[in-house]
Amino acid sequence: MPLHLIATVALAPVLVAQGRRVRRTTPRLPEAAGAREGLAHCATSPPAAIAPMAAPFRLLIAGDSSAAGVGVDTQAQALSGLLPTRLAQALGRPVTWRLVARTGAMIDDLTALLHAIPVQPFDAAVIAIGVNEVTARTPQKLWRARLDALATLLRTRFELPAIVFSALPPMHLFPALPQPLRWYLGTQARRLDATLARWADEQAPKGVRRIAIDLGAQDASARRAGGGDALVASDGFHPGPRAYRAWAEGLAAAMAAAADTTQPHRTTTDQKKPSLLSL
Fold this sequence. Notes:
Layout (H helix, E strand, L loop, with lengths): L2 H23 L11 E4 L16 E7 L1 H4 L10 H13 L3 E7 L5 H9 L8 E5 L2 H5 L4 H19 L4 E4 L14 H23 L4 E4 L3 H12 L14 H18 L21
Parallel strand pairs: 2-3, 2-4, 4-5, 5-6
Antiparallel strand pairs: 1-3
């Protein structure tokens, strides 16, 4: 039996007790307030200067509590408020965005949420999911199957040519988790993230990509830009304002680096499938 399984079995009573205590004592923070769809303009192209026929880049953001902005007060401070703005600046064109997210969501829950919104095309989706799969001890085989189902839904229902999965967060560093629970959940998170990485590589010809953010490097930039606010939320579990800025900066930079800038911007009458992200 692998060493980590032996340790897990031996520590099971402690892990269960710690898990119950964390659920009982960790503050339940609300989702960020504010609009869940909007339009972000690039700094070099204010609304009055945008060419009438320049179609915005259409972005879908979907996932669990981190996508919903838990840990900050408003969506303007969360991923949905920051990423479209950063991406618009990087692409040099406006970005329309829509957020579909819920606290506690697992992939099956997210699939149901996405089925409930109108069918519409997007140019790219950013998916933040997996922490609740970790805490639910989802087997890797089931995790892969659910990733397959979600990607299929995104491609068929929303005509998505580019699907970006954000890597699972470093749960071994979450302050809310005591040891050895932090070690256990951190190990499980790394295992599911490794499965996500392998799966995304296999799915790359279909436009899927996993993006892992070097939070330390991105945080240095975010801290200089935004002051000394918190990296981790008050619950010790969710991102704080600085982490959301670093996350958005990292995703925008990676997505812009993959953008096919040689392609002309589509017009509102162009019905061809976009090729804006060479993922």
